[in-house]
Design a protein that fits this description.
About 15% of the residues lie in helices and about 45% in strands. The chain has about 110 residues and is mainly beta. It has one domain. Strand 3 and strand 4 (about 40) form a beta hairpin.
Amino acid sequence: MSGGEEITMAVRNSNNERIIIGTWNVRTLLQARVENGAERSLINLFCIMKCNNINILGVSETNWRGQGYFQYSIIWEGEPYLYHIFYSGTTTPPGQGSSYGVAIILSDQVYD
């Protein structure tokens, strides 16, 4: 998965818990290889979030069409982790190309 610049920052919530917020220009999540029913590049994003303790990730240039929300869980070192993905992209009909698109990925820790 190729990507552009990544920027992260840390803030504290009202309970004084540290929350890591990041942004990433992924350039595309459209051409991801499907493996076991999941896009490999999307799973890579979740792994990057977990490795870097990122709780909220803003993703640009996803190249996804339409708008929506979905959840995805991964198993990391034997523990399940749930991610919440909100996305918005173009409404270009299939076959006419797609570009742009953004997503916000939240770890389950901050979704509540």
